[in-house]
Specification:
310 residues, mainly alpha, globular
């Protein structure tokens, strides 16, 4: 029988696999433009962190589904559907994704606020403290987008949310990589790119109230003052952090056109501006969907009229 490989032999084999994967990444890097710098630099920890967090998101969704299935309250709601049916499975998928999304929105909003408090976008030298914070936040957030696509978007065929995740992933993934940051723009604009990324993420704070509203709609049978308060805060946060704040970010990006052009990075300037335009349009679309029945219907749960017995 073949002898077990020694630790030295096993290590050599793993190194060969790692070298082969790295060789493939380096070969593919030129096809991804500036973002390809993540594939051919020596900072594999960033990409590995994204993949690890994607796995955490997948496991978190699976655990949340199990908890929902064991919950008397939620399982009782799911029993309205045939056992093992698509509707029952959808019920667990949605509640799990919403719970994990709640944690993601909380985390990135706090991290974005921390970065913006420490960062001066006009500083020519990269703010290492802010970069370290935002790099970790991007690993978590990019991992969330990957995991959520596989655990929620694809199973339910939610194309708008898939588009949202793809746009945000492609717009922000490079900000956590030093090599990509240097490829995206001249070094003196690195802080500005990080500022624009963190400023855009502040809109995730409105998702906390949006998720609160969703959970309340699942359990409240009649209107409550807390529901009204949450929805008022949701509308205010949504309008402030998206409808008002995004045009301000776009204005700041527009002001940097000459700086990007001087460094030969005008394509990145167009990409940044386009990303925020698309995100603003998606936000306006969802605002229209939220208020399609009017503001009053959005903030108040109307009591169901009882049919008179004949």
């Amino acid at each position: 029988p073949r002898a077990m490989p020694t630790p030295r032999e096993a290590g050599t084999g793993m190194a060969a696999v790692a070298d082969a994967l790295r060789g493939a990444a380096v070969a593919a890097a030129p096809y991804f433009g500036p973002w390809g710098r993540m594939l051919d630099d020596d900072d594999e920890a960033y990409e590995l962190g994204i993949l690890c967090w994607a796995l955490v998101v997948v496991m978190g969704n699976l655990v949340a589904r199990k908890i929902a299935a064991q919950s008397v309250t939620w399982a009782g709601r799911a029993k309205a559907y045939p056992r093992g049916s698509a509707k029952e499975n959808t019920s667990y998928i949605v509640v799990a994704s919403t719970a994990v999304g709640y944690l993601h929105a909380t985390f990135v909003t706090v991290m974005a606020a921390r970065v913006l408090m420490r960062l001066d976008p006009s500083e020519p030298e990269l703010n290492e403290e802010a970069f370290g914070i935002w790099r970790g936040a991007m690993q978590v957030s990019m991992g969330f987008f990957i995991g959520d696509i596989f655990m929620y978007c694809l199973p339910l065929g939610d194309h708008p949310i898939t588009s949202h995740h793809v746009v945000l992933f492609s717009s922000h993934v490079g900000v956590g990589s030093r090599a990509v940051m240097h490829a995206l723009a001249p070094p003196h604009l690195s802080n500005f790119i990080m500022w624009a990324s963190a400023a855009g993420y502040l809109c995730e704070g409105s998702n906390l109230f949006l998720n609160n509203r969703w959970f309340m709609l699942q359990f409240l049978k009649e209107h409550r003052p807390l529901y009204l308060l949450n929805n008022i805060l949701l509308l205010l946060a949504y309008l402030a952090s998206r409808v008002v704040w995004f045009p301000y970010i776009m204005h700041k990006v527009y002001e940097q056109q000459e700086a990007f052009a001087e460094g030969g990075h005008l394509m990145i300037w167009y990409f940044m501006l386009t990303g925020y335009v698309l995100t603003l349009l998606m936000s306006l679309m969802w605002l229209q969907l939220m208020l399609k029945n009017g503001v009053a219907a959005f903030v108040v749960i109307k009591a169901k009229s009882k049919k008179k017995s004949s």
